[in-house]
Amino acid sequence: MQKQQPPHCALCGAPLNEQELEQCHQQAERFNGQLLCFAHQRRFSGCPGLRNQGLH
Question: Is residue 16 within 8 Å of residue 35, measured between CB atoms?
Fold first, then answer.
């Protein structure tokens, strides 16, 4: 049997923690239903200053 993969960011592949998953589920419409790490969630921010920040 194959082991189920943990949830990961749709953009970078990083594993997601419980807080990131909860935010993705609460803001599913905002993130187009994607699971994203906190760094990539900023890309969907309504604030242009956050949206255009580089990823660290």
Answer: yes
Query: What average pLDDT values come out for the chain (56 residues) when binned by 10 residues?
Result: 82 96 94 92 71 53
Going by the DSSP 8-state scheme, the letter that residue 55 receives in this structure is: P
Q: pTM of the entire structure?
A: 0.74
Q: Please list the helix, strand and coil fractions of the chain in percent, rounded to the nearest 5, in that order.
A: 35, 5, 60
Domain coordinates in residue numbering, the chain:
18-46
Q: How distant is the alpha carbon of residue 56 from its chain centre?
A: 14
